[in-house]
Amino acid sequence: MGEAGAIERTETVECELADGSAFILQASHQWTPLAVFARHASAREDQDGFKVSYRARGKSELVDTGAELAYQPLEQRANMEVLCARLGLYEGQPGTGASLRMPGETRFWVPAPPGMRNDEVEQQRVDAQLEQRGLHLMDENSAMAIRQGKLVQELPLYATGAPACAARNGQECPVSAVLRMTSTDRGETWQPASIDSAPYFFKTGMALARQAGLAHPSARSLRNYRNRDENGAKPLEQPCPKKCTE
After folding, report:
1. DSSP string, 174-186
2. According to the 3-state scheme, what is the secondary structure of 92-155?
3. Spatial separation of the C-alpha atoms in residues 154 and 99, rounded to whole Å
4. Are 85 and 78 in contact (CB under 8 A)?
5. Which of 6-15, 30-39, 99-108, 231-240 has the lowest mean pLDDT?
6. 55: which strand partners?
7. How many C-beta neighbours within 10 Å does residue 85 have?
8. Whose CA is closest to 106, among 67, 62, 68?
9. Can you tell me the distance from the alpha carbon of 207 to that of 165, in angstroms, rounded to the nearest whole number?
10. Residue 3 above 90 pLDDT?
11. Is residue 80 within a helix (H) or strand (E), and if so which, with residue range?
12. Residues 237, 43: contact at Cβ < 8 Å?
């Protein structure tokens, strides 16, 4: 009966870029209205991650980026900021950290992941260097772009004990350095990762939230979620005993 009464709902977040374009994040789940009356039932099931699309400035068409972000509940505005911060615009090229719209192209291109993600020895080498220098990855944030003919990916790093970095995904945590990877063949092969204190896409000493290339939640997304309008960001958890006035 629960499955028969389930309704598919979609949460949408619009992440704006500095050039007027935007990434559109959409995550679907099944919501069962009758579940709110059952003590142990869950009203929300089959939660998908956020599929990432791109909308060029002045356009309405959505282009699939080939990327997906792990779902995060949107009860708090901070989670919207965290999601959008994983997307950006660098060297005039919109990217998701895992895919990139190449200059002069409309489709997004997904390169092979850097070697350390598939090479245990390389991962151990990188981990040892980070530990030696007291540096940590800023969760899943990264920037990727074609620069001087090379594909470059940078992952921001923060220092152990740095202020505002205690909380995971801390948007006020300053960038101390980056883990940089480069490829000369559009991502078919990658050079070994290196730690660099002079990033191309980030400014050291500046909080992640204020870095120039990051996407940010649009005012419309924040307003839609706050008002619980047709965006459907958060269905009611409890039935209304009287007429709902939301």
Report:
1. BP-EEEEEEESST
2. CEEECCCCEECCCCCCEECCCCCHHHCCHHHHHHHHHHHHHHCEEECCCCCEEEEECCEEEEEE
3. 13
4. no
5. 231-240
6. 22
7. 24
8. 62
9. 10
10. no
11. helix 77-85
12. yes
